[in-house]
Design a protein that fits this description.
Elements (H helix, E strand, L loop, with lengths): L1 E2 L38 E5 L5 E6 L12 E5 L1 E3 L3 E5 L5 E11 L2 E8 L8 E4 L4 E9 L4 E8 L3 H8 L18 H7 L7 E4 L11 H9 L3 E7 L22 E5 L1 H13 L3 E4 H10 L8 E5 L14 E5 L6 H10 L1 H13 L10 E4 L1
Parallel strand pairs: 2-18, 4-13, 4-15, 5-12, 15-17
Antiparallel strand pairs: 1-3, 2-3, 6-7, 6-9, 7-8, 8-11, 9-10, 10-11, 13-14, 14-16, 17-18
Helix pairs in contact: 6-7
Length: 361
Amino acid sequence: MAIVAFLPLTSLQKAMKVSLFDYDLPQKLIAQSPAPRRDASRLMVLCRGSGEITHTRFSDIGRHLRPGDILVRNDARVIPARVFGLRATLGKVEVLFLEEAGPGTWRALVGSGGRVRPGEKLRLADGAIIARVLDKNEADGVFTLKVLHPDNLLEALESHGHVPVPPYIDRRGPRAALEDIDRCRYQTVYASRPGAVAAPTAGLHFTRELLADLDASGVASATVTLHVGLGTFRPVKSQNVEEHTMHTERYEVPQETADLLNAVRRDKRRLVAVGTTTTRVLESLGDRQVRGHAGSTDIFIYPPYRFKRVDALITNFHLPKSTLLMMVAAFAGRELILEAYREATHEGYRFYSYGDAMLIL
């Protein structure tokens, strides 16, 4: 157990530099594979009010939740959206399908040794997928592709695609054998809505048994859907936080979740968000009455943002100078979060997608 001191958020208001959200992380602490069991990962519990930090296992998270809490999860399912193939020139090409832009038309990242041009036909996954390049948005580097074959791209990707784990997870050489593990473990046990190209990683720690135990203890659950997209792969390039343009992501709020969110406000129960993606959805709803609906959000949460719905947050440890780190800094305070990250590195916590977790109360 540790007690840390921190300064009020007002200290940030005059100099909101991206460099304020930097920290040192040894390369060896970047997790390259998941824990043997999902809930065997470590859990840091951080109390915003006192600055107290305690260390435990994720399987014990129920000890820090209470009957009446509402656990809101993102049920987005990661699609194996990365495929490899050949250009008409026989040069190698790699495609990461991001999202469907229209019937048979997809936005995608395309990598090749040479410049890929509009009109080119790409033969992917040994011909299981054929696509034509329509255009490229030079501003963000995203291509628009017309899928010529097959009619159902998602089915083809399930058979021939690769899980798009983040670039800091190395799958070259001997580690390529871990791709079969990624198929299972880079996916939450409750994932049901295909469309994401990155996992809502805070939810990776839950097992079905743990969720059942929480339910039996009086911790209710609800779901939203937010399909994690291109922004996951985009670093903050500006020097000032306010100059960064946040990506837009699609979300859905089922009516039963909307009803529960309204009841939470009425009954003054605690809303626990599982991950930053869920937090984006919840905070995009504002403090008004909620109805079931689909929409999109480009909300950018950084200090001194005042949270409208989320009372507690389950999250992983995020990249330096990332928008995700800025969000948790807004929730707990920048100084407190950076102190907690320093303690995490000292204690040998595992970082990023397959890493350990933090519960902020």
